[in-house]
Amino acid sequence: MSLRDLPAGPVLPRPAAFQADAPSDALARWAAMPAAAAAPTKGDSTITISDVIGEDGMGGGVSLRRIAAALSRIGPNAVTVQINSPGGDMFEGIAIYNLLRAHPAAVTVEVLGLAASAASIIAMAGDEIHMRPGSFLMLHNAWGVVIGNRHDMAEAATLFETFDAALTEIYAARSGRSSEEIAALLDAETFLGTEEAIAAGMADGIAPDTGNRPRVEAEPPTMAQARPDIQARRRIDAALAQQGIPRSERRAMLKQITGTRNAAEPATQNAGIPVSAIRQLIDTIRS
Question: Which residue of 28, 56, 94, 168 could cross-link 61, Cys pair, CB 3.0 to 4.6 Å?
Answer without folding.
Answer: 56
